[in-house]
Amino acid sequence: MEQTNFQLKKQKSQSNDWSARLHHATRATREDWMGKGISYLCIGVIILVVASMLWFITSKGVATFTQNHVSLTKFLFGTNWAPDQGHIGALPMIVGSFAVTFAAAIVATPFAVGTAIFMTEISPNKGRKLLQPVIELLVGIPSVVYGFIGLAVVVPFMRHVVGGSGFGIISATFVLFVMVLPTIMSMTVDSLRAVPRHFKEASLALGATRWQTVSRVILRSATPGILTAVIFGMARAFGEALAVQMVIGNAAIMPKNLISPASTLTSQLTTGIGDTIDGTLPNNALWSLALILLLMSLFFNALVRVIAKRGQLKHER
Amino acid sequence: MNAKRTDFLATVVINLIVATVVGILVFLLAYILISGLPHVSWSFLTGTTDAFSGAGGIGVQLFNSFYLLILTMLISVPISLGAGIYLAEYAKDNWRTSLIRSAIEVLSSLPSVVVGLFGFLLFVVKFKIGFSVISGAIALTFFNLPLLTRNIEESLSAVSRSQREAGLSLGLSKWKTEIGIILPVALPGIVTGIVLSAGRVFGEAAALIYTAGQSAPVTNFGDWNPMDPASPLNPFRPAETLAVHIWKVNTEGLANNAAQLSAAASAVLIIAVLLFNLGARLLGNFLYRRVTASK
Q1: CA neighbor of B32 nearest in space, from B267, B285, B276, B289
Q2: Domain co-membership, B25 together with B51
Q3: In a 3-state reduction of DSSP, which class is residue A262?
């Protein structure tokens, strides 16, 4: 029975019009069309998300200047932030954000580079077994937990040591330092590993000590990579919201020193956006802060690209 | 100071730095677990929160976190799978592809608070869905997509070319080759990436404050009809997650035992994230052994 069925099918297919079959897409081709369609659709969704995100936040962010007619210089350089009364000088937040970002990067970089040297040059074995998990765990700890520890440990510690309320840029720096550490660390390790082996061997063969080799050959050659790592860390610090918001004190005034309450763009956004009404000046002003965050994130992105390109040129030469 | 001496000194300094970094991590974990775990009890894990002060158990928040995680993964895994296949297989090396790659990079480098605000603007303000599970899940998807896409693309590209050629030479379509041959080989890497991103999603709070909301209405856990407003599965109810709860208790909470409460909740969160990390590694290794038949 099965045999005859098979033969029947065979006859049928042979009797088909060959030219029609050749002119039609095969099953494999149709499958490929479908596959192409699905994957194009998915990538399209992502592009749509990115485009609409940029568009929405930009259009909301410029409303302060187009609808409320606030001058851009007043917004960027004004120091009085009281949106309810129509004063929207964002400089305190901008300074706050940059201060914590730079401070965290400056503190974290030596630690990250030191650890990376340990992992690649001094003890690769221990590096893999001990420090790789350390990096992964530090990355894995959620930012609210960092914020909570900042609130429970760092803020009281600062209050005890330097006085004041304990909230402020210095506490935020401490918290951010630990948060950006794994980012800078893992990328620095990658860039140290990418240094060609013969560089190191040549230096050691000339009789240089390990530290001379590391400081004069390896670090020099890995500089673009390390810079990229630091910028990635800074981007993370600049955009971090909750952990910073929990320890910085959220006072929208120009930071006079490192231990008085201050605020950042992100902290102002998190605390403010829920309390303002859509379309009003206080709300628009907050969206302008979000726009600064967005632009800075794009800027960091571009910076990484430039450095990567220059680094490449150097290696090619 | 001679070179040998400097070398020795540098080694000592580097060792000290490493000890500090390890010490910081040990301190962090020990602090959370020691101060948090004694307050974790069955009633804490399943109890309900007092809506006014924020005191009480975290049962609803814990459920919300897992529910949001599952919804987010249901949305983001298929999309990033398709996008990853596009980048690994179909994308040509031209300006359009590099534009797409930059767009993904931009999305991945955006601060999560900006992603959350976009979700808030789109779902809460424009579409008027309100603070809801679904708004939160989509915002988390935005946050998750670029990382997952990149991970999937890398895993797919790492599969050797000969496997692709073998499939194509047998007359299979590109799509069939990708789904039937390449994907199974790349699966360990992809699964590891998915579970790791699950850990990240689980701990994310900034993107959720203004999308999934900061309130956890007590739901009726006997009612599993997703259309019912009181059902825990209803995607249109506000859903405060565990991470958001920790933030809220610390910043706005009126509970007099806020520190204990958030220490305990942090301990639960950390343990969950650690389990995700561990699970990612175990699952990845297991799948790798199964697929490659190696030891």
Answers
A1: B267
A2: no
A3: strand
ipTM: 0.88
Contact residues on chain B for A210, CB-CB shorter than 8 A: 7, 10-11
What is the DSSP code (8-state) at residue A82?
E
How far apart CA A283 and CA A296 sit, in angstroms, is: 20
Q: Which residues of chain A lie closer than 8 angstroms to B273, CB-CB? A: 140-142
B175 and B249 fall within a common domain? yes
Between CA A193 and CA A119 the distance in angstroms is 10
Residue A294 lies inside a defined structural domain of this protein = yes
Nearest CA among B115, B134, B119 for reference residue B72? B134
Using the predicted structure, report yes or no on whether residue B76 has a pLDDT greater than 70: yes
SS3 A87: strand
Residue-wise pLDDT tens digits, B90-138: 888 888 888 999 899 889 888 888 998 899 888 888 888 888 888 889 9
**What is the rounded CA–CA span in Å between residue A242 and residue A261?**
15
Q: Which residues numbered 30-69 in B keep a CB inside 8 Å of some CB on A?
A: 31-32, 35
Q: What is the pLDDT of residues A147-165, one digit of tens each?
A: 999 988 888 888 888 877 8
Question: Of chain B residues 221-260, which have a CB less than 8 A from chain A?
Answer: 243-244, 246-247, 250-251, 259
If one counts the domains in chain A, the total is 1
Close Cβ partners of A259 (under 8 Å, ≥ 6 residues apart): A158, A162, A163, A164, A166, A168, A169, A170
Q: How far apart are CA B150 and CA A157, in angstroms?
A: 41
Q: What global pTM score does this model have?
A: 0.87
Question: B92 and B200 in one domain?
Answer: yes
Whichever domain contains A201, its CATH number is 1.10.3720.10
Tokens of B113: 């608070």
Structural contact between residues B246 and B94, judged by C-beta atoms closer than 8 angstroms: no
Closest CA to A180 of A101, A245, A242: A101
Does B9 share its domain with B109? Answer: no
* Paired tokens of A227: 């810079």
| CA–CA dist B89, B214 (Å, integer) | 42
Q: Tell me: the pLDDT tens digits for A188-236? A: 999 999 898 899 899 999 988 889 999 899 999 999 899 999 999 999 9
DSSP B54-103: --B--HHHHHHHHHHHHHHHHHHHHHHHHHHHIIIII--SSHHHHHHHHH
Residue B80 and residue A42: Cβ atoms within 8 Å? yes
pLDDT band, very low/low/confident/very high, at B220 (cuts 50, 70, 90)? low
- Residue A212 burial (CB count, 10 A): 17
